[in-house]
Specification:
heterodimer; A: alpha/beta; Rossmann fold; 2 domains; seven-stranded mixed beta sheet; about 60% helix; B: alpha+beta; two-stranded antiparallel ribbon
């Protein structure tokens, strides 16, 4: 009996050992292929979620557009808008490229807005059109994210390329978070609430409304989509620049700053400095709503407005000061969080300190940079 | 007979194998749970802070479509009956109030 039991144990041990060796051989020769299929499953799962986010965004945007449109071809025309694109100018000869980019961007913006207005058959406010255009742009961003991830997924699957799949696997969690942010942003654009990126225009709006500030002049649409307020505060003159609200709009702050500086120069008036307030992406671990000061042009986007500000400031030797309010991408494009909104008084105090302590005599240009949605 | 066999066949090794399998199972479960959390969409509460122009009384209510900063809605102050304006609009994120995507 004991002999028989020992025999079974021996046989069992041999089976286990053979299995171990087999597993070892399988992992040596097919390890990468197994890993490839595991990655394929993971990326495929994320891609399905991305498709869900994209479809939800499309549905939300079409539903919102339907409220203001009786167009029977709305779905078709919306799809055409969704798949529209912009070709950037040739960069092989970079001389004068910013002007070319500006030209292309202006054409794109005008055509996009015109196409959208053609979709809308009811009479609605301009601010609502702007919010709808923001919704369509967020949907476009989601659509392009999905298309790019799907392209690399199918390419890796077709060519059985482990390295494309490995790179995709590494990047999809970050991409998915970005896509989620765009979907959440749609809700803010639909409702017309201020977003995290609106903190720049919001601070300058509160600066104008402040009890210690006296408005001297208001120049609506000073340049396209941008307003300028001439105000007096603590005995100093401020030219406050912000995009025209409360619709979702970033305006042309670079063009406005250029025009203000040129007009002040014509009148032989001194320009003490430019203070720019903008939202900035925080690093992981940094606190949301942290305010920081620095120098330079605090403005994002494609680079045209930044170039204009830097060029005019350098030409006229005007110091550039920047105040930034830190936040994540998700916070920047969704309804403004309390922690961000609570930085308004701190930022205004910093503007006062810079203007009183650091800037010499002369006019000050204060620019609130960002999307002015929900802020008039 | 079987229990005897198991006892004789390196019961310690079996225990280790079982423990390893259990650990992997829990890692997998945690990973699936984390993945589910990643896929969740946060549904924030949007609040509006109104201030009375006359007495400065502050009131907080839920956001209504059409609200924007500095708007003067047709609402009277609870304290003095004066005109109110929207001072600030902000969101509060409550993690428990989430919906699955």
């Amino acid at each position: 009996m004991i002999d028989m039991t020992l025999q079974i144990i021996d046989d069992f041990n041999i089976i286990i050992q053979t299995l171990y060796i087999l597993l070892f051989i399988v992992l040596i020769f097919f390890g990468q292929r197994i890993q490839f299929h595991l990655s394929l499953m993971e990326v495929g799962g994320v891609l399905r979620h991305l498709a869900f986010l994209k479809d939800t965004a499309i549905k939300m945007t079409i539903d919102e557009l339907k409220k203001y449109s009786t167009d029977k071809d709305l779905n078709k025309r919306f799809e055409r808008l969704l798949n529209s694109f912009m070709i950037m100018p040739e960069a092989a000869d970079p001389s004068g490229i910013v002007k070319k980019i500006e030209h292309i961007v202006n054409i794109r913006e005008a055509r996009f807005l015109d196409d959208l207005k053609r979709l809308i058959t009811s009479e609605i406010e301009e601010s609502k059109v702007r919010n709808l255009s923001n919704m369509v742009e967020a949907t476009m961003a989601l659509n392009i994210i999905y298309k790019i991830i799907q392209h690399y997924y199918l390419l890796a699957k077709k060519t059985k390329n482990f390295f494309i799949m490995a790179q995709l696997q590494m990047i999809v969690p970050l991409i998915f978070n970005e896509a989620k942010s765009y979907l959440q942003a749609l809700n803010a654009f639909k409702l017309g609430t201020p977003i995290g990126d609106s903190i720049g225009p919001l601070i300058v709006h509160k600066f104008i409304q402040h009890s210690d500030t006296k408005t001297i002049e208001y120049k609506k649409e000073y340049v396209k989509d941008t307003d300028v307020y001439v105000v007096e505060r603590n005995g100093r003159i401020f030219y406050v620049i912000k995009a025209s609200g409360p619709g979702g709009n970033v305006g042309k702050p670079g063009e406005a700053i250029k025009k203000v500086i040129n007009s002040l120069k014509k009148k032989n008036e001194k320009i003490a400095g430019i203070i720019m307030i903008d939202a900035a992406l925080k690093l992981e671990g940094e606190k949301t709503g942290e305010v920081a000061e620095g120098v330079g042009a605090a403005i994002g986007g494609i680079g045209v407005e930044k170039f204009k500000i830097e060029e005019i400031a350098t030409k006229n030797k005007v110091p550039l000061y920047a105040i930034i309010i830190k936040q994540s991408l998700m916070e920047a494009i969704t309804t403004i969080k309390k922690e961000i909104a609570d930085t308004i008084s701190d930022a205004i105090n910093r503007v006062d300190r810079i203007s009183n302590e650091e800037l010499p005599e002369g006019n000050i240009i204060l620019a609130g940079i960002g999307n002015t949605i929900g802020v008039p | 007979m079987i229990s005897n066999l198991i006892l004789q066949f390196n019961s310690f090794e079996l225990l280790i194998l079982f423990a390893i399998a259990l650990v992997f199972f829990f890692i997998l479960l945690t990973d699936i749970k984390k993945q589910g959390k990643r896929m969740m969409l946060i549904n924030p509460e949007i609040k509006v802070q109104l201030i009375c122009k006359e007495c400065g009384f502050k009131e907080i209510r839920d956001f209504r479509e059409g609200d924007y900063i500095s708007k003067e809605p047709d609402e009277k102050c609870e304290k003095c009956g004066g005109e109110k304006y929207i001072d600030i609009i902000y969101s509060i994120v409550k993690q428990e109030k989430t919906r699955q995507s």
